[in-house]
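Researcher: I'd like a structural prediction for the single chain below. Treat it as a standalone chain; there are no partners to consider.
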Amino acid sequence: MSGESEFDLTGRWSGIFSYPAQFPPNQFEAEIRDSGGLVTGVITQPREFFEPSGPPQQALIDGRREGDILTFVKFYDDLGRPTPHYQGRIQPGGDEIEGEWTIPGDWSGTFIMIRASKGEAASERRVSEKV
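Model: Treating it as a single chain, here is the predicted structure.
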């Protein structure tokens, strides 16, 4: 049983999100602020595999933490891009979140985020892929 006050997701996070099986995963860094369950932040990530090389991308996140579930939408600086919806389960201890992302009617995949103190492990774990 998880209570609202059990988790505070404020901090730096490292993560990986996967694409459908035939494409490579992408890494990201997130700076998150959790204000009583209202979650905001900034994600920085390398360009997607299908984009020309260039500086890292940034996206704002806007979401909510309810118990051990985190949901958020990622809004890229390039407003013409689709907005992925994320839903993940906060693992016991509050330093790891695993879940799925979707672009409604299009792509989906999985993700894992680990709080910065454990961020090295995020790049070492395989994230299962979903079509």
